[in-house]
Amino acid sequence: MLSLAMLSSFTSASSGDIVRSDTVMSYERMTSHIADLAERYPETIEYKSIGTTPHGREIWAVKLGQGEAAIFINGSHHAREWLTTTINLQMIEQYAKAYRAGTAIDGYDARKVLNETTIWFVPMVNPDGVTLQQSGLTAFPEKSRNALLQMNQGSKDFTRWKANAQGVDLNRQYPADWSTIHNNAAGPNWMNYKGAKPLQTTENQSLVNFTYEIQPEIAISYHSAGRILYWNYKTAPANLARDRKLAHSFAAKTGYSLVQPTSNPSGGGYTDWFITTFGRPAFTPEIGIKTGEAHLPLSAFAEEWKRNKGIGIWLADEGYRLWLSRNCNRAEQPLEEGTLTLTEARDVYSEPNFLSKATTRLSPQTLQAAAKAGNWYKIQTGEGMGWIYEPHPRLGTAAEVDASIELKQDTVFYEQPFDRTAEKGRLAPMMVQASKKWDDWYLVMTPIGEYWIEWAN
Predict the structure, then answer these.
(1) Alpha-carbon distances of 342 from 42, 270, 336, 394, 443, rounded to whole Å
(2) Active site annotation includes 332
(3) What's the topology of domain 399-454?
(4) Tens digits of per-residue pLDDT, 286-339?
(5) What residue spans define the domains of the chain?
């Protein structure tokens, strides 16, 4: 018989926010915040490493939402610009909170937008550089310290540091007119050294590979400072009106000044590369007012967050429209097993996209789907045929099983399968008996009754 002692310590998610904006955002604090956010909001947040820096720090990517379209937001290419990491993390938390509550951000329905579009974040592109800027030489192996001192012109004060820990400016590394970058430092330096070749660094390689992987419709690379907005790098004439319209909206929302294109721009930046490679919109907002060769003060955050709070959710909505313009005629695929269980109310649309008309709303129930197109399922309603969006469909039915499962780590159990929002508790490592199976979900006996766990053998 199971006892309450077999439950691991479990505390329900606090209503207090996780992300701290009143303290220095170190690599360690960011990593802890990301893990805590994923645990609190499992229905919308996942994360993974997309690379490891030369000093062993993970470059974390955070996935927010369940949409078929994607946009990409990143921060801290430059070491001293770590307040942009806090901007990224605040977006993740506040948007996830609004998704769960069913509320809006700046007039945008967070649940609808994050079902349309997945927002990917890399909050800290340059973990080694940020750590050096904040903590100095003591955070690095002794064998590396002399080289770092030389790159900092002999100073032990790294407050001004922008580069990575190899003295390469990560926002001068991308293959967009790299050979003609202006004002290049002669060698590894605290700022402005573009490297010996494009994509020389692990950090830049990781970001480029990840961008190709997720294929974002729009990219936003946060920097500081100046309250200005870069939006055009040799933008193709066919895309100019589209990108200018978005840029003017961005400027209106933030109060930032648009940087007008010049005839001979200096390239090498992430958004320079993104615009010329993908032909899609990209923006480099510079938050805050520059106060010298140093990071922005913590006191600058509140105003910059106020200006940028809605940017991610707005551009996610715009990204969906761009994605749909290329994916509006997807072929329907018939379903062999069409039994579909809804665990929450769903709007029914006239076409398999969120911009079509919502014809009715279905309560939780089990119904039959005739076909699918992407994550959309075609069903019969009293209003005729319609489409519902299910990124994690519960197809088929649960099968009876009699199986013993060895849990090798603390395991969350839930009210329903496929629904990670209704956590009931956690089981410590132990053997449990399962009576039903549905894909990777098992109905098991816990000290407080039968509940579902997600378990992959």
Answers:
(1) 18, 41, 18, 7, 18
(2) no
(3) SH3 type barrels. (2.30.30)
(4) 999 988 999 999 999 999 999 999 999 999 999 999 999 999 888 899 998 889
(5) 14-131+198-324, 333-389, 399-454
